[in-house]
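seq:
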Amino acid sequence: MQLDTLRPALGPDLPNPWGPQGVSRAIHRFVLRLIELGGTLVIANRGGELVRTAADFYEMSGDIGDPKCVPSAPWMDFATSGENHAVVRCWGMLAFGLIDLAVPINASPDSPEFEHALDKALQALHYATWTVVARNLECKVDEVLEIPVSFRMDACGAHDSSEESVSYRGGGADDDPFWLLQPEHSTVNTRAKEVESTATAQ
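struct:
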């Protein structure tokens, strides 16, 4: 199923590929079964032809039987891109009928702050890609995503989120190969805490 051609036609009515009976969840289950039968490698052809070992893919998959689990990351590649490694971006969102995302790295490669800035940008990108895939809707122009400053990420989303967050605003030119999320300012992320508290209570 070519989700990248179906989504423009169906828009918000495209069934969630990671729903309980979704095509992405079914394919993921199939790949996990092949690994259990002795498969050694997984090639994500929409993720820049990324090759993952079976062990890495399995570890990143979480509990595929949990509806809250959306293991999209094993199908995607993440790397720096652009002149002077200006952004960190993903390849592979197209597999779910979505546009790839990128986050700027707020330091030059020759700066001692580059590694730290890269880690923060990559962390924000992981959060954003999981959020967009899980909700099954593309980022819109000027849409703002609130991303916690610190958190622990797995296939079921973010955990142990900090109260402070950074606002990232979506945008980009029509010919860009990705949607750029620009950081704006920090806020107190009380909503993230409420969501985690509710999930824990349940």
